Amino acid sequence: MSTQPIEPPVEAAAPPSAPSPSAPLFAGQGLGCIRGDRVVFRGLNFACQPGDALLLLGRNGSGKSSFLRVMAALVAPAAGHLLWQGQPVQDDREAHGLRTRYLGHADAIKPVLTVAENVSFWVRLWAPEVADVEAAVHQALELFDMGRLADVPGRFLSAGQKRRVNLARLFAAPGQVWLLDEPTTALDKASIAVLEDQIAAHRARGGIVALSTHTDVVLPGARAFHMEDFSPHREGLAENDDDDSAFGWTEG
Prior knowledge:
Helix content: 25-40%
Low-confidence stretches: 1-17, 237-241, 243-252
Number of domains: 1
Strand order of the largest sheet: 6-7-8-3-9
Largest sheet: 5 strands, parallel
Radius of gyration: 18 Å
CATH architecture: 3-Layer(aba) Sandwich
CATH topology: Rossmann fold
Order of helices and strands: EEEHEEHEHHHEHEEH
Structural class: alpha/beta
Number of strands: 9
């Protein structure tokens, strides 16, 4: 894909040195993302309070996945600041990792581990404070009617089953911020309904959700971001520019 020379976005002003009492819980100011010599998005601002939701829309290559990775602090923004309670996330990335749950569109399923072992691994990694891991895993799997497959190795699962296991780890170890990249891929209508119910419950508890999707998802009161609005390259967006494989990454 040919690209035109570009200038990087101008850095936003330095974040405040102390949190404001009225500051949003989770926010981004003037966020920009560059890959190679191409600006993926720029000038993106968001502000979330407990219970808020963001819906990321746009064609492949428009920056949906990149935005989620920036929110998860997996990728540093090329411009702007990511803030938690008014303080830069980069000041304590470990704390941000414990509060966020990022699920990429590639299912993080280890083929040699059983369904239960796959979910247990993530619970222990994400939420070491969970006292009864087995019970948490069982409850999460039952949400998707996957308890009967708890002892089945991951390599035998269908695409839809892998996606449900991927989501089950989210419910077994729920963090404060859910960052979901195409979570409805390969799900049937019943499973999508379960996901919508769990997202609603998470928000009711004060959780924050940001998700990208190409399908209809019930997300009442969500703020929609049309990612093309933040891209200087609306035409000719590459099909693989927003894939994990384009970064050379796979989750898990």
